[in-house]
Amino acid sequence: MPGIIYSVQIDWDDDGSFDGPGEALDRDVIAVEWALGLDDPADVAAAESWAMITLRDPAGHYMPENTSSPLYGSLVPRKKVRITSTYGGVTRTHFTGWTESFTPHPDRRTVAIRCTGVEALLRRAEVFLPTATDQTADAVIAAALDQVAYPPAISGYWLLGTARLGLDTRLPDTTTYADLERGRAVFAYVGGWRGGVSAWEAIRAVTQAERGLCFVDRAGRVIFWNRHHLLQTLTVAASLDEREANFTVTHDGADMVNHAVITCHPREVGSSPEPLWTLAAPLAIPPGEARTIRARFTADDGERVIGLNPITPAAGTDYTASSTPDGSGADRTGTITVTMDAAASSAVLTFTNHGTTTAYVLPGAQVRGIRVVDRGPADVTYADSASITRYGRRTLGLNLPLIADPVEAGRLARHLVVEGKNPRGSVRTVTLRGEANADIRAAVLAQAIGSRIRLTDSRAGHSSEYHIVGERHMLRHGGTAHQVTWTLRAVSPVAYWRLGVAGAGELGQQTTLAY
């Protein structure tokens, strides 16, 4: 498009910059597509972000098995990718991710490079979160991210074997690759997953219980917003009508909720430490060696339980050892030490034999702690009878294991019905073509997830405001054609109280408290 310079870059040499030989692909680019954020506006956690880069490649430079390519050996997954634009003196990043696959098309003399975002990494990463009490969503997300082996969107931070710690690089922390807003909800108990869980599944679970929004931004960072964030985004960044954008106003009632059922999970918490796990068979440990096992916590009836404040096994109290597997031999308890790394429903135990002969940790070795038992789901409902009578029952059910308090579940159920009990027209996606005019061009580049826009369709009599919660871009013809489709979430129809704001501060008259 006029005056816009696009750039597609890949960090082939893993040095954290994009200024190496062949790292700017601009002259070879035929087309680029990428997507970020939500596909479904009703969701709370993003779909997988991705990019597809199509390159002309008559010489086979981008074919991974071409040994004569100057990039041979670098055409592999996990190379950092960045897509940028420069317009009006402003350079913007539109996508950050990693290469995932290379698909050459020798007959067409092109190659397609598929790239993935951070969500793919987090879906593959298994984490074991310890049981924690009174936690907000941001704290849980940070704990999950801290267990991911290679954090997202890192540039200039230490990676073993590739740089000098303290000289070229420094160790990352969560703020390096995430921006987490403090959650509004406080979860009494967190960590009730059965064993390990993917980092993204843990993130999705707490985001859903918070009713917030989690996505990966254009810079590749994990972003978490609490449930009040969009309510406080009040400035309209762009106004569009049916002549400037392609959208359809629907009146299908799909977004209506007049009957909400929230399934919460009350917990029963023990009063004193008791066995969470017991060793069933002798564990042989050769002299000078260590054995590592995962102890999965269970109740007396075999049901899995959560362990709060697990205690590292103590010699003589929680375990004994012998020179024979049946315990009839010499006592070897004093030669065995144990370390423990505890998660919510299991612990990794490492037994080390410091003696000169084989020792057997005997059956009955145990991990003790406070048992937290999920006593089964409890449904809490809220309904608007007038809306049901007029429009029929429109039920939304949510199973939220992190919510233990039925009162909290009731507040959420009421909030969902207050927001959704009345029908209204809505737009779920809108498509713009950046070559239309300068204003549209600026909107295509600048507006991103979280931006508030107004859409007006004079023929349909529709004029409403929306937040962008997802974006999909298509770039063609050397950058002269840039199309974007935004996924939209309608701004709340409820006027919520805002302290000191005229027209929004009269609690109980013009406004109501936000959930």
Word description of this protein:
It is a single chain. This protein is flat. It has helices spanning 118-124, 137-146, 174-177, 199-210, 385-391, 406-420, 438-446, and strands spanning 5-10, 29-37, 50-56, 80-87, 90-105, 110-116, 126-127, 132-135, 178-180, 187-190, 197-198, 213-216, 222-225, 236-241, 246-247, 259-264, 267-269, 274-278, 283-285, 290-296, 306-311, 321-322, 336-342, 346-353, 359-361, 366-374, 378-383, 395-399, 429-433, 452-457, 462-476, 481-490. It is built from seven helices and 32 strands. Residues 158-171 have low confidence and may be disordered. The strands form eight sheets. Strands 1, 2, 3, 4, 5, 6, 14, 15, 29, 30, 31 and 32 form a twelve-stranded mixed sheet that branches.
The overall pLDDT, averaged over residues, is 89
Low-pLDDT parts are: 158-171
Class per helix and strand makeup: mainly beta
Proportion of residues in β-strands: 35-45%
Number of helices: 7
Largest sheet: 12 strands, mixed
The helical percent reads 10-25%
- Characterize the overall form: flat
End-to-end distance:
44 Å
Number of strands: 32
Radius of gyration: 28 Å
List the helices and strands and how they pair.
Elements: E1 5-10, E2 29-37, E3 50-56, E4 80-87, E5 90-105, E6 110-116, H1 118-124, E7 126-127, E8 132-135, H2 137-146, H3 174-177, E9 178-180, E10 187-190, E11 197-198, H4 199-210, E12 213-216, E13 222-225, E14 236-241, E15 246-247, E16 259-264, E17 267-269, E18 274-278, E19 283-285, E20 290-296, E21 306-311, E22 321-322, E23 336-342, E24 346-353, E25 359-361, E26 366-374, E27 378-383, H5 385-391, E28 395-399, H6 406-420, E29 429-433, H7 438-446, E30 452-457, E31 462-476, E32 481-490
Parallel strand pairs: 9-13, 14-30, 16-28
Antiparallel strand pairs: 1-4, 2-3, 2-31, 3-6, 4-5, 5-6, 7-11, 8-10, 12-13, 15-29, 16-27, 17-26, 18-26, 19-25, 20-24, 21-26, 22-25, 23-24, 29-32, 30-31, 31-32
